[in-house]
Amino acid sequence: MKRYSAMSLLRNALSHNRDWRPAWRNPEPKKSYDAIIVGGGGHGLATAYYLARDHGIRNVAVLEKGWIGGGNTGRNTTIVRSNYLWTEAALLYEKSMQLWEGLSQDLNYNVMFSQRGVYNLGHSLQDMRDIERRVNANRLNGIDAEVVSAAGVKRAIPCINTSPGARYPILGASLQRRAGVARHDAVAWGFARAADALGVDIIEQCEVTGIDVRGGQAVGVETTRGPIASNRIGVVVAGHASVLANMAGLRLPIESHPLQALVSEPIKPVLDTVVMSGAVHGYISQSDKGELVIGAGIDAYTGYGQRGSFPVIEHTLQAIIELFPVFSRVRMLRLWGGIVDVCPDACPIVSKTPVQGLYFNCGWGTGGFKSTPGSGWVFAHTMAHDEPHELNAPFSLDRFATGALIDEHGAAAVAH
After folding, report:
1. In the chain, what percentage of residues exceed pLDDT 70?
2. Run of H or E including 115
3. Is the CB of residue 221 less than 8 Å from the CB of residue 63?
4. Average pLDDT of 346-352?
5. Do 91 and 210 belong together in one domain?
6. Are residues 105 and 192 in the same domain?
7. Which of 75, 223, 237, 336 makes a 20 to 30 Å CA pair with 259?
């Protein structure tokens, strides 16, 4: 093993990384591309990667107004699961789960995917009936799921409060053992490096200010770094999808809401799984650094704020302390807000639009991170073939006109 002296470490620290090889190039934008992806988050980078790897479309630009990993990709609580109720949603998230399970090997980049399991708690007889219904639906779709008793929850999570005298007593839970967490910034970096290696141009600090539509066909975008032409444009911008849609004369059935989360100071390992509760309105896991990662539901108001607010955080911590009284004296380290797009049926839009050559991937609500590889995989197929894959066909934009909605409000858990 190569050894480094103290002087060697100091010398490299003072070099400001000048000898480090960049993970991806920093190219100037070309005049035109075969495909443009607007949005350099996990979904956009995954789309570019699968376009290049699976469909041979490598003359692709990913346009990011900030920096890679600086948007919603870095503003979430990293939970990955596929135990959704309805077949359409469950199969799409399960495809993503299958990709997660081999993603580090595929990208040759450790995304730190940890299959530590996710418990969804039940606090009433109706909760338990809903849990049994969802577990049975998952099994029918080939997705691992099981019902766990209150005693089973206590055995697995000794520090949880299962007292029958609790305000919201725990009667049981559903468990998906293959679910877990991943490192959000590593996912963005891994997809960025892998896409770059296939020839994709990743262009940061390049905000799209307009979408050029002529005769019903998308022909390019206007950016802060000049116009870029393409007749195939995919928009994957999380909380700002409606803003970009408006540039093309489209109105999307989505609302943008702030979503807040926080982490505690690091503590010794005490929680080796993910716990979610819709009744007390909170969820929690522990990071590899020891921080408790805590989140709850979306803010009631619409907006684009990325700040925290103490009334929401206070409510969230009340919920967590109800479940884990042992955490009552742990100090909060930092908090943040992200922006989520929410559709009326709590399911995404992964679809062609009435504008030829313009595609939108949005409306994931709080399900965005867990769907990252699967979302990119189906969206790449849709852009490459101008037709949806069978997995994302139910999530077309026209379902809001036909009424073929997929109501996942319950399985979307605490967030919406």
Report:
1. 96
2. none
3. yes
4. 96
5. yes
6. yes
7. 223
Last residue of one domain, picked from the residues 292, 307, 340: 340
**Are residues 122 and 168 part of one domain?**
yes
* Amino acid identity, position 255: E
Closest CA to 365 of 345, 341, 344: 341
Confidence label for 294 from pLDDT (cuts 50, 70 and 90): very high
Q: Which DSSP string corresponds to 161-187? A: ---TTSSS---EEEEETT-EE--HHHH
Looking at the fold, whether 361 and 415 belong to one and the same domain comes out as yes
Tens of pLDDT, residues 92-131: 999 999 999 999 999 999 999 999 999 999 999 999 999 9
- The pLDDT, as a whole number, for residue 306 is 83
Q: Looking at 340, 366, 391, which one is the last position of a domain?
A: 340
d(CA 382, CA 390): 10
| 338 pLDDT above the threshold of 70 | yes
Assess whether 311 and 243 both reside in one domain.
no
Average pLDDT over residues 347-363: 97
In a domain, 151, yes or no: yes
- The residue-averaged pLDDT of 18-26 equals 86
Question: Quick check: 349 and 254 in contact, CB under 8 A?
Answer: yes
- If you average pLDDT over residues 176-187, what whole number do you get? 97
CA atoms of 282 and 414, how far apart (whole Å): 7
Give the residue among 265, 109, 253 at the shortest CA–CA distance from 189: 109
- The CATH number covering residue 336 comes to 3.30.9.10
Whether the CA torsion 265, 269, 270, 271 is positive or negative: it is: positive
Of the candidates 247, 302, 306, 259, the residue with the CA atom closest to the CA atom of residue 38:
247
Tell whether 321 is covered by a domain.
Answer: yes
DSSP string covering 340-359, please? EEE-TTS--EEEE-SSBTEE
Does residue 5 lie within any of the structural domains?
A: no
Question: Band of the pLDDT at 9, cuts 50, 70, 90?
Answer: low
Residues 187 and 104 in one domain: yes
Dig out the tokens for 385 from the structure.
Answer: 């073939």
- Do 195 and 320 belong to one domain? no
The whole-chain average pLDDT of the chain stands at 93
Both 324 and 186 in one domain: the answer is: no
Helix or strand or coil: residue 364? strand
Contacts of 300 (CB under 8 A, 6+ apart): 257
Residue 264 belongs to domain spanning: 114-179+256-340
